[in-house]
């Protein structure tokens, strides 16, 4: 039985929890305010889920999802995440997060920054362009003509393999947009981002990722 630790219990963290539980995973989920504030969510998710502090979600997860926007000063538990595959759902949105000059200038991507903050973890950009409430509804069996695809980016092939398998279990094809230095192609305001509501097939996602032009020119 694989346990997924989830740090961040908002829109995306709670929906990934739901989708993972329906595929047989155990969940340990945390927010910033403490496990006692997650009673309603845990009651909704059922016996395969429990609430914890972020450090415990990190240490108890075989793999861990960070469903929290990136801060310039790391707020994730480095030691507890060491050696683990860490799925990072965050999108950089300057209107919400403030301007990060190294991203705006194209020096680095937001997920390379997460990798720098958690140097002993295997960061993988995942689930960033599915609208959380659609995650359960949009999944389709393998081979279905209307099956949608999701992008993945990482510097670690085993992290890409894990996410590819998880996407497949949840009903999505995968497009590997590795390494992390290429992950700007799936950032907000790129060609693929225009399809965020209804999603895109594997062929369309490959085309849209290739059509992206770097924001720094
Ligand atoms: N919403 C979507 O459909 C969607 C889809 C794909 C990607 N994303 C991206 O994923 C990230 C999260 O989005 P969201 O919509 O889920 O945000 P959200 O609804 O605002 O939830 C954020 C969660 O993170 C928790 N949190 C914040 N700082 C924390 C910390 N230091 N330790 C532990 N937990 C912490 C919050 O806990 P408290 O409430 O206790 O503060 C909250 O549970 C964003 O970067 C977003 O752009 C969102």
Short description:
This protein is α/β, with parallel strands linked by helices. It has helices at 11-21, 39-45, 54-60, 94-97, 101-104, 110-117, 135-138, 157-170, 202-210, and strands spanning 3-7, 26-30, 49-51, 63-66, 85-88, 122-125, 149-154, 173-176.
Major sheet: arrangement of strands? 3-2-1-4-5-6-7-8
The number of helical elements comes to 9
Tell me the series of helices and strands, N- to C-terminal. EHEHEHEEHHHEHEHEH
Largest sheet entry: 8 strands, mixed
Detailed description of the structure:
With 217 residues, the chain is an alpha/beta fold. It is built from nine helices and eight strands. It has helices at residues 11-21, 39-45, 54-60, 94-97, 101-104, 110-117, 135-138, 157-170, 202-210; strands at residues 3-7, 26-30, 49-51, 63-66, 85-88, 122-125, 149-154, 173-176. An eight-stranded mixed sheet has the order 3-2-1-4-5-6-7-8, sandwiched between helices. Helix 1 (11-21) links the parallel strand 1 (3-7) and strand 2. The longest helix has 14 residues, at 157-170. The N and C termini lie far apart (46 Å). The model has no long low-confidence stretch (mean pLDDT 97). It binds NADP nicotinamide-adenine-dinucleotide phosphate (NAP). NADP nicotinamide-adenine-dinucleotide phosphate binds next to helix 1. NADP nicotinamide-adenine-dinucleotide phosphate is lined by residues 7-13, 30-33, 54, 67-69, 75, 89-91, 93, 127-128, 131-132.
């Amino acid at each position: 039985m694989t346990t997924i630790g989830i740090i961040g219990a908002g829109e995306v963290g709670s929906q990934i929890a739901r989708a993972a539980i329906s595929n047989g995973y155990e969940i340990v989920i945390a927010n910033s305010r403490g496990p006692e504030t997650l009673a309603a969510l845990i009651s909704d998710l059922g016996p395969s889920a429990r609430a914890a502090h972020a450090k415990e979600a990190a240490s108890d997860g075989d793999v861990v999802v960070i469903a929290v926007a990136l801060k310039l000063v790391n707020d994730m538990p480095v030691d507890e995440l060491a050696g683990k595959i860490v799925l990072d759902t965050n999108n950089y949105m300057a209107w919400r997060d403030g301007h990060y000059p190294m991203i705006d200038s194209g020096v680095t991507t937001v997920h390379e920054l997460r990798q720098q903050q958690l140097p002993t973890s295997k960061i993988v950009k995942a689930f960033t362009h599915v609208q959380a409430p659609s995650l359960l509804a949009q999944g389709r069996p393998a081979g279905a003509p209307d099956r949608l695809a999701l992008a993945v980016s990482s510097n670690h092939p085993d992290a890409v393999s894990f996410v590819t398998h998880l996407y497949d279990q949840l009903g999505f094809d995968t497009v590997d947009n590795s390494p992390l230095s290429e992950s700007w192609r799936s950032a907000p305001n790129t060609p693929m981002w225009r399809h965020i509501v209804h999603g895109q097939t594997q062929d369309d996602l490959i085309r849209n990722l290739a059509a992206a032009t770097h924001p720094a020119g």
